[in-house]
């Protein structure tokens, strides 16, 4: 055969194999990274989508779930690694410093916020006549190998920590959270640990050779605490002895002037306000603040009782000018209660008073919620009253 002749496949016998494109799809960085990884995976999504014939609805089914979870992750400084079918995978770059307490606090806040968002996601799905979903949340900490792809701009992560985090995800209850033992070892020494309850799962995750890796279920102490049922009723405001002592030392003329001013203020600004918070002391404080300003307050420690009362009103929008909700509450959390109340009375004004750093999350996933609708605990009287009056005047 002459040099110019072609052999099988069209190559000349003297042609170099370098004519093939040997570009690698992925290339690994020369460094590894210790950080926290998170997985959120839908439960039984294959069966759910198999029952949906409309392709547009299938797209909406996945996009509502994935976009909401991704938004929450980004708001806690996480980066999305990828979406794999019905799972969202993300990591927290700032946890590369295992002593960064704020970064690890963000992890648990992020995971619990994702669990709370379950009701919001399902409310969105119901609006589009789609079936409700459940999902499992898992996270772990450890070494990752970093790679970049020629076909993707985002970094990808590899290693046993990634694999274990994906495997333990199935050990979570639907809409529950589990974390691996390595992550638990890091967070257990931080000050915020008392805000959560960790329960080690009996079986753990088998890593072979009769060894198991510890896995922990994560719960917020606030959502698992018990409360005395005798306080789950509306409070009636009574003046405290401290207020009475101050008033007793004032001159009659001062008291008369203040009384006249307060009567004028009440005529202009008095409003009916409902407050729902499962912490009695906090609830009583808010009630005192607002009652002293002339507002009529109805307070509930039991969100179910609050909802029952709200439903029985012939016109909630006319009856209550404002509703204040905590976020983390037993049985019905604040996000779910928000949706239920809005479904009953679309125009009712609702604000959140929460210890959670979740302003951006609430804004991104709840309709009509803006920055000025959220008050961060703990609150000071003047600031609290000012925010409430501003909302009422709007």
Short description:
The chain has 394 residues and is α/β, with parallel strands linked by helices. It is 40% helix and 24% strand.
What would you note in describing this structure?
The longest helix is centred in the first third of the chain and has 21 residues, at 55-75. The chain has helices at 45-50, 55-75, 101-116, 118-127, 160-168, 181-187, 221-224, 241-248, 252-269, 280-292, 303-312, 316-319, 334-344, 359-365, 381-393; strands at residues 26-42, 79-84, 87-92, 135-149, 152-158, 177-180, 196-200, 205-208, 211-213, 215-220, 272-276, 296-300, 322-325, 350-354, 374-376. Residues 1-18, 223-250 and 260-268 have low confidence and may be disordered. Strands 1, 2, 3, 4, 5, 6, 7 and 10 form an eight-stranded mixed beta sheet that branches. Strands 12-11-13-14-15 form a five-stranded parallel beta sheet, with helices on both faces. It contains 15 helices and 15 strands. The protein is globular, with a radius of gyration of 28 Å. The chain has two domains: 28-224, Alpha-Beta Plaits, CATH 3.30.70.1230; 229-393, Response regulator (Rossmann fold). With 394 residues, the protein is an alpha/beta fold.
